Amino acid sequence: MANIDLNSDLGESFGAWAMGDDVSMLSIVTSANIACGFHAGDPAGILSVLEEAAKRGVSVGAHIGYRDLVGFGRRNMDPSSTELIGDTIYQIGALQGLAKAAGTSVRYVKPHGALYNTIANDARQAYDVITGIKAVDPSLALLALSGAPIVEQARAAGLTVVCEAFADRAYNADGSLVSRRLPGAIIHDPKAIAERMLRLVAEGRIAAVDGTDIELEAQSICVHGDTPAAVAIARVLREALATNRVDLKPFTEVDHG
Fold it and tell me: Where are the transmembrane segments (predicted)?
């Protein structure tokens, strides 16, 4: 039986402004990427999500980002190495403290938004994030874009790297994600999403936006939690995987060598 992890970006509400249905999503996913306060999230809300994740046995990761609340961490930035290393350490450490209070622990790191996309190919910023992770806890896994240069860079630095695919995002032929600024970047049809992820699990392949097939290594599938139909999409995907005898389990419980 094949197995796969389902992850989602959670804990992104801020004060009176709600972002997604975290409680419902935690009943579906096996790993939760929890905001650390830089791109989204506030301490009380983050703690609440961590407590719910602990109650449900969902694996927890630090969803670190650029210091960009106004832009939701989706604006390109070029912090110095000193800044980025410090920001990485700070965010992981903050989440570790809240996680301990919630009765769980941080098991991995997944960068968010513009930081995620930048370090996929920018060796300097990738080095800074890798350095920050290792300074806190070198046993933390890094969740990264499948096929991107950072995968080998982080593995060469001694980190465990888990590759992910995006259920609801379109891909370019080179394996990069289609920019959110372009039409068709987000896929909204739950059935289409489920079908393409089933093929990915079975064949390791997915159709790019131009129709060509690309190969993707993936131990985890991300379903975004901030889209209007996020919970419905995640439920359909989980049911489709279970029906097709795909075992859902956190990647932190799988030996990645």
Answer: none
Per DSSP, the residues of 161-227 read EEEEEETTB-B-TTSPBPPTTSTTSB---HHHHHHHHHHHHHHSEEE-TTS-EEE---SEEE--SSS
In a domain? residue 145 = yes
Tally of domains in the chain: 1
Phi and psi (nearest 5°) for 233?
Answer: -65, -45
Whether residue 174 is contained in a domain is answered as no
Structure tokens, 171 = 């891909």
Question: Any idea what the CATH number is for the domain that residue 114 is in?
Answer: 3.20.20.370
Q: Is the pTM of this model over 0.85?
A: yes
Model pLDDT, residue 250: 95
Range of the domain at 144: 2-166+217-222+245-253
Q: What confidence tens digit (pLDDT) does each residue in 169-201 have?
A: 999 999 989 988 898 899 999 999 999 999 999
Per-residue pLDDT at 152 exceeds 90: yes
- Sequence-distant (≥ 6) Cβ neighbours of residue 86 within 8 angstroms: 132
Instruction: Give tens-digit pLDDT for 51-77.
Output: 999 999 999 999 999 999 999 999 999
Q: How far apart are CA 47 and CA 187, in angstroms?
A: 31
Query: Is residue 199 one of the residues assigned to a domain?
Result: no
